[in-house]
Structures are given as structure tokens and as C-alpha cells.
Amino acid sequence: MALAGVVGLTPAFSFANTNPERHQMIEVWRGRIKAILARDRLPILDAQATYVAGKTNVERMLGYMDDLNIAQIAFAPAYDLTAGSALELQRSHPEYFIPTTNSGEWNGWWDDPARFLAAVRQQLQSGQYFFMGEHEFRHYPSPEQVRAGRSERDITVDITGPAGQGLFQLSEEFGVAFQLHYEIEDRLLPALETMLTNYPKAKVIWCHLAMIRYPERSSRYGPAYVRSLIERFPGLHFDLAVPPPASVYGPSGARDSTLYANGRLRDDWKAVLEAHPDRFLAASDYRPPIEGAYPKIIGHQRELILDVLSERSRHSIAYQNAWRLMTGEVWAG
Prior knowledge:
This protein is α/β, with parallel strands linked by helices. The protein has 13 helices and twelve strands. It has helices at 14-18, 20-38, 58-68, 84-92, 107-110, 113-125, 143-147, 162-174, 189-198, 223-232, 267-275, 294-305, 311-327, and strands at 44-51, 70-77, 132-139, 155-156, 178-182, 204-206, 236-239, 248-249, 254-255, 260-261, 264-265, 280-281. The protein has a six-stranded mixed sheet. A two-stranded parallel sheet has the order 1-2. Helix 10 (223-232) links the parallel strand 6 (204-206) and strand 7 (236-239). The longest helix has 19 residues, at 20-38. The chain starts with 13 loop residues before the first helix and ends in a 6-residue tail after the last helix.
């Protein structure tokens, strides 16, 4: 698999290269991944998850991780502008957690993105953070919020405005990937393509591959379109934190996980994953309200996606791509 054109092989920021704590963390994570591989199991590096202090049951999650062969989780803390809780988690359980900057899934992000990004800059300057959390630019309420009648996360942040420019610039400057929540709609795609064009060295993980909540608003997006994005934008990746095949998004009444047909991974989507296995990442979209469903979420990802791919592709997607993005190194064991 040729990786020469893939962004993410050389960390751009000098602190990241010289911080001794960082190298120690990497070796600890490597050891846990290798231990899972030695048991003939496929490790997963869960690249998208939201930590909420006082609500995430850490001990429960540690048990899940051991039972499910989850090597590490990139926990992005919400409601914590300093993201100090991410470092506390890693220090308490060094094998298990990847320090990730604060999650842009709360009003600290969309009400004052300049303040939020200033805090992220400080976190990245420390050299102790390996990912940037999920940032919502267009977001519809999550299913549990719909059921509760809550609409505060029906939000729009202009991706071409100061918030988007600042985030893409941070990724280019520090060489750190960020996660992007951006609903799939025809009217939104040109702005994203503009940003990917203007910031070619940014490392972008577009969350929730093929999750379309209002299908009548999306006619362009599909396997061919995603393949074209991959071919044009070397820094663009996608995560597989997607609902199961039978999931229905309440407000639209649509089955929102268009990866699947008849309860299985569609052949055309499988072809894209096999053609570009270096551009997709395993992920759960964990957040505290769905903590009890974590084993089922991971089970769906393994059974419906990873298990039907070739050996090379499943290892790339399960942990090797996240490893490359967070360390700047191709996984070599």
C-alpha cells in the first residue's frame, strides 16, 4: 500500500517530536496493541469518543476495552476548556487513553470559537495531545436528544469563516488531526471542498461515513463522490462511527446509515474501503448517554464492516491509520 501521498507521516510541530513524555506514551500504547495481536485478536483504536467527567464510568469502560479488544480510546473531553481531564485519564490509565483536545460538541465551541481555539492552541503547544476532538459545524440533534425533545445542538458554524479557518490552520501548523461533524447535504459540500483546497496539509477526519439524516437534501454524496474526495485531498479521512443498518432518524423518518443494504455492507462502499483502506478509521461515537450500548456498537463495527474486509484493510482501519495520524509513523509493530 503506497502511503507517499497520505498526509500524516511526519509530525509538523517540534514540541511533538522532542517531548520525552510523548515518546513514552507511544511505547506504552504500542505494547498494548502488540499484546492484543499476540492473542490473535484484532485491536481497535477508537478514534472518536467524548468524555464527560462525572458521567463517563471509567472503570466500566476499562472493562469493556479489555473484553472487546479495544487497544485505546481517543477520549475528547466535553465541558472542559482546558482538556486537562484528558491528561488525567491518560496518567491514571496510561495504556488505555489517548490525550485529545477538548470536544467541540458543546456551547463552549459554537458560542465562542475564538476562545475555544485559543485553548486548543495552548494544548497543542504542550506537545501532550495527539488528536483534536470532534468539532460540530453543521449538526442535527443526536437521537437521544431528539427523544428528549432537546434542540440546543441543532447548530451551524460557518466552516469557511474564522472558526473553520482557525481550526484548519491549527491542524496544518501542529500536524495534528481534527474530527469534523458536518451533515451530508448538497448545499454544504462546496464549502468543505473549498476548505480542503485552501488547507491541503490539514488532517481532517470527517466523522460518520455515509450517515445521511435527510436523504432528500443529499443527491451527490455516495461511494463515487467519496472516492473523488480521497483522490483530490490527501489529508482527508473518514471515521466509521455510524448507526446500525436498521437505525431510523426520528425527525426525518429515514434510515440514516446508507453504508448498508439488506443488513449488510453495500458492495460499492466495500469497494471504496478496499481501494483506500488507509483513509478510514474505526470509531464508536461514544458519549455517556449510550455507554451501555458500547459493546453492541463495537460488535456492529466488527461484524458488519471489519470482518468482511481483507486482512490488510481491516488492520489498517481498525488501528493502523489512527496510529499513523497520532504518531506520524506507519505502524511497524
